[in-house]
Design goal:
Biased composition (Low complexity): 35-53
Distance between the termini: 72 Å
Number of strands: 0
Transmembrane segments: 6-25
Number of helices: 3
Helix content: 40-55%
Region (Disordered): 32-68
Keywords: Membrane, Transmembrane, Transmembrane helix
Largest sheet: none
Radius of gyration: 26 Å
């Protein structure tokens, strides 16, 4: 067995482990089909969002520092 076939085999093993972890830890099919059921609870506070938001900062503030 040369190094190319060994690397290919180990790559296939790692890919299979990553794919299995994606299926195990990923969202269930019912969560994918019905996303509105999960997002129904956070919609209770639209009145708090009525105030305009503060503008985003434009960049770092550079101040002159005296050399004493």
């Amino acid at each position: 067995m040369n190094s190319q076939s060994t690397a290919g085999f180990l790559g296939a093993v790692v890919a299979a482990i990553v794919l299995a972890a994606a299926f195990i830890y990923g969202p269930s099919p019912s969560q994918i089909r019905n996303p509105a059921q999960r997002a129904a609870a956070p919609q209770a506070a639209p009145a708090a969002e009525a105030a305009p938001a503060a503008p985003a900062p434009r960049g770092p503030v550079i101040r002159d520092v005296p050399n004493n």
